[in-house]
Amino acid sequence: MLMPDGVAAISRLDDLETPRLLLDADRLERNCARMRERCRALGVALRPHLKTAKSLDVARVAIGGEPLGITVSTLKEAEHFARNGHRDILCAAGVVPAKFAHAARIQRETGCDLVLVTDARDIAEAAAAFAMDNTISLSFLIEIDCGEHRSGQLPDAPAVLDIARVIDASPHLRLRGVMAHAGHSYGADEPSAVVAIAAAERDAAVGAAARIRAAGLPCEIVSIGSTPTVLFADHLEGVTEVRAGIYMVWDLAQLSRKVCREDEIAVSVLSSVIGHTRHARTLILDAGALALSKDIGANRLLPGSGYGYLCDARTLARLGRLAVNGVHQEHGTVSVDGKRGDLAHCLED
Amino acid sequence: MLMPDGVAAISRLDDLETPRLLLDADRLERNCARMRERCRALGVALRPHLKTAKSLDVARVAIGGEPLGITVSTLKEAEHFARNGHRDILCAAGVVPAKFAHAARIQRETGCDLVLVTDARDIAEAAAAFAMDNTISLSFLIEIDCGEHRSGQLPDAPAVLDIARVIDASPHLRLRGVMAHAGHSYGADEPSAVVAIAAAERDAAVGAAARIRAAGLPCEIVSIGSTPTVLFADHLEGVTEVRAGIYMVWDLAQLSRKVCREDEIAVSVLSSVIGHTRHARTLILDAGALALSKDIGANRLLPGSGYGYLCDARTLARLGRLAVNGVHQEHGTVSVDGKRGDLAHCLED
Lengths: 349, 349
Fold this sequence. Notes:
Chain A is an alpha/beta fold. Chain A contains 11 helices and 16 strands. In chain A, strands 2-9-8-7-6-5-4-3 form an 8-stranded parallel sheet. In chain A, strands 11-12-16-15 form a 4-stranded antiparallel sheet, with no helix packed on it. A two-stranded antiparallel ribbon of chain A has the order 1-10.
C-alpha cells in the first residue's frame, strides 16, 4: 500500500541504499485502526497528530476514510497538509504574531479551517488587531496547563476568561475552545499513574471549558491528548476530541512504559555494517545521529537500549542484546560484549 | 554575501518566521580564512568537510577561491556537491557494496573524482568485481585507526597491506592513499592531550603510508583530520591533506574545550518566546529538539549549557545564564531561576 520511492517489495531489501527508514505498512494499519476503535469506544473524535510522520500517505492511513481533522506542530506542516487536501487542521503549539501572516495565507490559499493556539492575552490582542487590519479571520483554542507545566494557563486562572473575552469580542477572531496536553504522561511508568494523569488532563480541559461557557462564551472544542492518556483514561466525558500521534508507529520509549508491544513498532532504520573493528570489539553501522537521532529517552526504563536495538532486517527479531551504543553524525557504534550468541549474529555476516 | 531565501538585511529579523537557523556570514568568512591560513602554515592541503553545512554557499566560502577538494560523509552529499560543480570529493565513511552503483553513477554523470574509503579486504574484493563487471573505475583510501577505535585498521596491521594489494591488483581500482580520523580529540579538554592525539593521528597515517610505499604500492594521499588536531598539531610532516569542518561555524562543544571563542560561533537558532509560564517560572520557545537537536555534549565541560545558551537576537550577547533546559519536538523550555538579572531580560519582552 505504501510504496514510495520505487520500493516494490521486501525482496529488494538488499538493494536499498542505507541508512533508510523502513515503515511496516501492516503494523501502521493495525495501530491506526486500533486507535480509531478506542476513540469510538470513548465517544470522542480522533484528531491524529502528524508531527511525527509528516507524511500524506501516513495521514491517509491514520484517518482511515473517516472525516477526521488532523493535528500538526508547525505552520510548515499545516501548509503541507492544507495544500494536499486536509481541511481541518489544528496547529497545536502557541502561535506568535510573526506567524499570523503565514496562517492567514494558508487559510486564504487553501480554504483550510486552521485552528491556532495561545495561552496569552497579548497574543490574542495582537491577533485581533492583525485580523482587523487584514480583514481576515483567525480561530483559536486556549491552552490549559493540566500539570505538565510546559505551557498553558492553569484551568482556574483568571487569564483563561480574560483571553476568552478578548477573542470573543473581536469580530475577526473565533473562540473555538480549549486544549490540554498531558506531556508528563510520558514520564510515568505505572499504569495507575497514567490513569491519574489522564483524569487530570480531562478535568483541566473540561473544567476550563465549563468556566468559559458559564461566562456565556462559546467553547465547542475540548481537546486533550497524548497517546498514553487516551489509551489509559477511564472515561473522557466532556471531551470532544483527542490528539495523539506516536501510536501510529510507536517507539522504544513507549515500549519502555509498556504502552505498546515490541511487535507493534512500525518504524525501523535499515542500516549496513560498514566496519568490523575486531581489535575494539565493535561493529560500525552507517546509521548515526542523523539517522537515529540522539534521543535516548527509552534508556531510563530500558537500560541498554542505547540509540536503538539491533534487529534482523527481514524479521525485525532482536539480535541478541545488541544495541547502538554510540553515535557520530553518520556512524553508529555497537559494542559486542563477547558473548558467543551476539558474536555469532553479527561478526560473521 | 549569503542571502538565501529572501533574507535581505538584519533589520528584518523581527519579520522572520521562527525557528530559523541564522548564519553569521562575517564570522564564517573569518573562520574559513583562518583555517586556510593555518593549513598553508602547516604545508598541507585543506579538504573542507561539508557534512555539517551541506551548503554550496558555505562550500564556496570554505574554499575561498583556492583549488580545494572537499570531504563529505554520504553519497547523497557527494552527489549534491558533484552535481553543482565540485570535482574532487572524498566520501569519508566506509563504503559497502550496495553503494558502489551510486558511486559509479555520480562519477559517470558528473565527471567528479570521487574517492571512497574502506578498512576491509572483502569490500575491496567486492569493489574489484563490481568495477570489472561494470567497466568502471573506483578510487580508494584505506582507513587507519589512530586511537579512536571507531573504524579503520591499526597502522601496523597486516590487513593494511592485504587491502592495498587487492586494490592495486585490480585494473579497475585506484589505490589513492590512507586516511585517519582522530575523533577522540573531541573528548580531550587539555591542549597537551590534543597535541598528543594530533601526533598519534599523524604518525598512524604517515606510518601506514610508509608501509604501503615500502611494499612498492602507490600512496599519494595521506589524509588526517578533526578540527582540534589540525589546530593543535605541532607539525604535519608527511601528511598531504587535512579534513576539518566544524571550524567553519563552531559550536558550544568546541567552545567548552576552548578550541574556539564565543564570538567566533557563526550559527545560532532564531526563536520566538511562545509562552511565559509564570506559575512554573519557565519561558517556552518555539525551538525544540528538531531545531536545536538533542545533542548535549557541551554540558560535560560547560555545565548548564543545556541545549544551547539564550542570546540576544541582534548582538548574540548571552542573556544572563539562561539556557534551553529541556526540549520537546517543537518546544524548548527555559527555567528562569528567579535572579532578577535573568528575569529582567526575559520575562518582560
